Amino acid sequence: MEKRKFGFAMSMVLAAGTILGACGGGGDEATDNGSGSSDEGADKFTVAMVTDVGGVDDKSFNQSAWEGLQAFGDENGLQKGTGGYDYIQSKSDADYKTNLNTAVRNEFDLTYGIGYKLKPAIEEVAKQRTESQFAIVDDVVEGLDNVTSITFKEHEGSFLVGVVAGLQTKSNKIGFIGGIESDLINKFAGGFEAGVKAVNPDADVAIEFAGAFDKADKGQQMASAMYSSGVDIIYHAAGGTGNGVFAEAKSLKETDPEKEVWVIGVDRDQAEEGKVTVNGEEKNVTLTSMVKRVDLAVQDVATKAMNGEFPGGEVIEYGLDASGVSIAPTQDNLTDESKAAVKEWTEKIKNGEVEVPTAPGGN
Amino acid sequence: MSKKWTVLAVPVISVLLGLLAGAIIMIVSGNNPAAGYMALWNGAFGDSFYTGETLRQMTPYIFAGLAVAFAFRTGLFNIGVEGQLLVGWLASVWVGLAFTDLPKVVHLPMAIAAGALAGALWGFIPGFLKARLRVHEVIVTIMMNYTALHVTNHFIRNVISDGSDATDAVNETASLRSPFLENLTDFSSLHNGIYLAVIAAILMWFMLEKTTLGYELRAVGYNQHASEYAGMNVNRNIILSMVISGAFAGIGGAMQGLGTFGNMFINSGFSGIGFDGIAVALLGGNTAIGVVLAALLFGALKVGSLNMPIESGVPNELVEIVIALIIFFVASSYMITWLLGRFKKKEAK
Amino acid sequence: MDYVIEMLGIRKEFNGFVANDNITLQLAKGEIHALLGENGAGKSTLMNVLFGLYQPEAGEIKVNGKTVHITNPNIANELGIGMVHQHFMLVDTFTVTENIVLGNEPKKFGTVNMKQAEQKVRELSEQYGLAVDPTAKIADISVGMQQRVEILKTLYRGAEMLIFDEPTAVLTPQEIKELIQIMRALIKEGKSIILITHKLKEIMEVCERVTVIRKGKGIGTVNVSETNPNHLASLMVGRDVTFTTEKADAVPAQSVLEVRGLSVNDSRGVQAVRNLDLDVRAGEIVGICGVDGNGQTELIEAITGLRKVKGGTVMLNGKNITSFKPRKVTESGVAHIPQDRHKHGLVLDYPIGVNMVLQTYYQNPFSKAGIMNYKEVYKKANTLIEEFDVRTPSETTLARALSGGNQQKAIIGREVDRDPDLLIAAQPTRGLDVGAIEFIHRRLIEQRDNGKAVLLLSFELDEIMNVSDRIAVIYEGQIVAVVEPKETTEQELGLLMAGSKKGAGERV
To answer: Is residue A174 in some structural domain?
Structure first.
């Protein structure tokens, strides 16, 4: 009996060994394929992106960046995969370096790191892999010729949605929910507050931070507290935490269709997130969104790099002027007054008439 | 003899069963399991870089596994490894930043010791509460995980840095980084911590099996009443066990702070290493050598799985399922052997 | 004779170890048949074969004259064989009826018909004189009651042949009497009973015939009317056994243990020992005798440092050891055979050899500078295993795997080996068979003869009378009388234990 079991175990081990052996062989093949495809794709420019822990479908900047890569791929006839464009997801903070290296090892010409969390990893890997090109989104890496830093003038876009909020609030109470307090998120808060005050000096802006970008429940709690204190418009800059803000607004709308509750989305056009059906009638709690065109920026840098104009070592700031930030195309819930005001203030910012602050508490 | 073989065969078979279940899932969902596992293997051991990454990932797993196993052997269930790891991480980074002109031979051990001490302190509290007030350690350690998470975040933002969400990198004199290992593994982030992990495993084995302390701790774990009758100080041993377990976890945190990352940053959630440590300890049968092997498996799965989507096209979600299945089978096999053991004991009666 | 069960030439092996070797047992209709053997002789194995838990390697089982193959307990049930387990298999939070019908519930429209079940249970309990309340929760009824529930469970399933596995081990004397009546009632109703036991008294009282097995071998079947306890004991053990322990008169010397005015609380904080005085001299055995719960346990725990002393002093050889920690007490020269060997005496998951140094592991040569020397540990263990006849496959076998008697021998070996001035033995023979009891008594007397002071705590009057040189009767936390075994009777002790002669004792 024992012997038979042992024999079984042995054969399993042997089988495993064979499989693994086959894997080893296959691995060589795969590498061969890889180099082959990069040979044939020598004329093709390949790009990869490494997400942060949010993942590629975070409905936020990872997703937006991926949309940019897809657009770039379509434009240049690339396939998803190692010979064209692809993404690598990180599951923990320890994965960034591994994934960046994996991108380099798969011979991508340009590798994006999405999000400020990848900054240390990009710095280090870029130093080791000087022959590869990198770009970081949402943070600045200085002093490395093979890294481009892509940042946004979030305060400018936030200013515009602030104008909308200031004009459309009924209660003169407006909320802001940020993810983790940082220089970056303060740009959102500062621009937003300035926009509100510019058109409605009487309105109050309550600024709060959830302490996390992935806690929808926390977002919902905070939104619930804000709405019940009389706030009617909340602007969130909190990634996944912001999904809780939408959830709360929608559930309030469902129980009382007449109640004025609005959410201003961030990063992408979040009109989809705000859809809610009340008594068979379709409503939307998304007032509008501040769109950060990570996709355009990613596409732009990739195109430059493909054309041999990789802006290595530079910090590119995408603002209103370059359509790097803007108010979302979905503006169904905006009044004509708001739309006109948005246009007006856009011009003022573009021509430098107005300097938007990058942190709250300007007044 | 046959007993020894089952001890080995059970985890091996369960890993294979897990792989098989994962393969079935991949086939059902229209993916190629051979390609998937090939990618997993390549991503874990495909070349020196990935081997390095696997060993790097294994390092904190060994410490977390040892921490759980050590407490378990003395009859305590330390769920708080995650928290002890976080405070150890913070303390080691803090010491690594605070001193600038110490020689490496002083500074590095000091930073690691700080991690061990912080973890030990975090283990002492539930140990003390258990010994004095009979508060169950599971409850206290779970709570202290959250405390650790938020306390460390607070310290990073407000004490060690100026409102930033990451600390600076620790000074070179406190770093575990090894240019030698990095060159050997083509710039992987493998660091000297792996040596410490192996030493720690040997130390745990020696402590439990060869010292009077281990004799006492295990006796208390098996039977508190008999230990008390025999003149051992049961309360002291409970506290000591949690302290040592916490110290292992704390050094595991130091590995992250002084090696893998070289700093500490705001964690919005748990790193999961402490919880995976429970699985590592169970799979390793709560023995030192078992923990090392199980940590290698977990490290390989974690690192290798990153490579699966890009090399084999298996979608990420599926990779998670496959990895979870392997862990599930591994864990349930432990339960099965445990149950079998129970039945055998009953029959013997 | 009409046999309802015949087990013929049964052989059962476990990994080469022969647990049953050619055993034959024939149960006649309407008889109470004893299955007698020492612990580990193979009684339980044989019954598990009958009950379908084990398959025999050889031999044949006949039920009502027909050869049967019992491959699982369900078949045994169907054949009318029921087992009353020593360790009850009851669900504490269920009622008596729920436990009885568990797995065999009367159904009505898919739900359990509890009314009908209760009725059936009531009928059964009246028929066999098994008084229980069908609606009571198991957790709320006494051990004796729980045993009746176990019996009812088998009757409910239609058992004709009942196996009782050591049924009296957990019962009080009163409950034992009741059980014997129940067994007689069952016989009257036409049932047949196999009684597994090693208590000779019970066999002589209720059984017609007895089958003896020793070390896995069938020794034979004898009629109870043609035998006596001594004969049975020698059949069981394989040699002559004496019940009255032979010993010379004690030659007591100086006082070793002096307890003065001791007061101790029990775990609930109620005073258990009140202002107690006690002396034990070198070269004598003092037996403490009393009804359980009169402070005996607390007294011993206080002396050995396991329990806090509230007042009074404990002196050992003139040295005050009151409130010493257990280790200091041990080091002062006290050895302690604890009442509950599983709870206190052994670390069951340690090898038996490792258990031999439970109090001395930190000393030379078992360890040096905190490092254990297991070679020395096992060397010591082997000497003790040999000297005290501990039957174990090896010194590395887990203590858990040993029989109760051998575990106890190991503990005694360990305690005696430390050469203590005072040996405290609390219920040293509980649950052991005659062979082991005799061995342990001899060892205690040997210690006395070597000039040690021995304090014996026992609830068995026989043991107290046989072994002690002086008997201290404890009642409500005080020693109410000290008598010599030769000058007293069990009746007198019984009265003293019940507190009735307290006043008289004080006057003397």
So the answer is: yes
